[in-house]
Amino acid sequence: MNKRLKLILSLIALALLLTGCSTSTELITLDTTFSEAMNDGFLSAIITYPLSQAINWLTPKIGIFMAVAVVTIVLNAIVLAFTFKSNIAMQKMQEIQPELQKIQAKYEGRSDEMSQQRMAMEMQQLYNKYGINPLGSLASTFIQFPLLIGMYNAVRRSYAVANATFMGASLSLSPSQAIPAGKWVCVVIFVLMVACQFISIKIPQWIAEKRGKEEADKHHKTYKKPEQQNQAMTYGMLAMVAVAMFSIPTAVSLYYCISSIVNIAKTVVIDKMTHKEA
Q: Any bridge partners for residue 169, and if so which?
């Protein structure tokens, strides 16, 4: 788990670095060509350019709000197609937390090499029992980060985002800019984004607890709620996202909000699929 955490933090640092490297502020319009987009780099051309053009093309037809929403949903569908097994593994990892914690408690305070090897072996046996690859869940992280960066830059440089309005407000405004301007729709989108992010983070835990209670009742046992680890880090990351989004165009908050709603729906659907009644 420590290695996984280090890898995720490294990816976050890389994402921030890549975001900072994208310094171009030139708007992408429907007249912008692919070769012109290549001047900003390969990743910009294959990710930022098509996403921005999709928003530009859809906005006159369905409005800026729906344009960002449609692009977000399609983007999430593409990610899900490549990471479906990874998402199943992540949910199963949540469900076996009580069993993992029993193994860890069994070897608590025993730091000798033999004990650590036995603990690793028992944990691997548990993963094998439920058909889980603990590193499989990292696939979605690898895919989502460049797309997140690409969507951020697509929104930042989209001509439609810079010029279209939703309910009298430009989604190019950040929530911090919208408050003094009285554009409260941007603030509402931001608040909804934070709420949906929170639910998206917590729903796997809630589902795992529900399944644990059902399993305990089935065997006439008392359900013991598993100890939740890294809660401070989870809430800290949520706070960091909220602080960052407060100064970024509201269109990015809209992207995050819809992505969270899609993720909530995906989590519920995967749970139903992996726990079909006999």
A: 166
Angle 64-95/97-106 helices, nearest 10 degrees?
40
> Does a structural domain hold residue 202?
yes
**Among the ranges given (7-21, 155-169, 203-217, 251-265), the one the predictor scored with the smallest mean pLDDT:** 7-21
CA triple 205-208-214, angle to 5 deg: 145
| Number of compact structural domains in the chain | 1
Rounded Cα distance between 83 and 75, Å, is 12
Q: For helices 250-274 and 64-95, what crossing angle results, to 10°?
A: 40
188: in domain: yes
Give the span between the Cα atoms of 104 and 127, in whole angstroms.
Answer: 14
Q: pTM here?
A: 0.68
- How many CB atoms lie under 10 A from the CB of residue 84? 15
In which residue are the tokens 């069994």 written? 106
What does the angle CA 91 – CA 93 – CA 98 come to, to the nearest 5 degrees? 120
Within a domain: 216: yes
List, for residues 161-183, the tens digit of each pLDDT value. Answer: 888 888 888 888 889 988 998 88
| Long-range Cβ pairs for the range 29-35 (8 Å, 24+) | 29/56, 29/159, 30/56, 30/57, 30/159
Q: Which two tokens stand for residue 161?
A: 């985002």
What's the rounded Cα separation, in Å, for the pair 50 and 123? 43
Distance, in Å, from the CA atom of 28 to the CA atom of 158, rounded to the nearest integer, reads 5
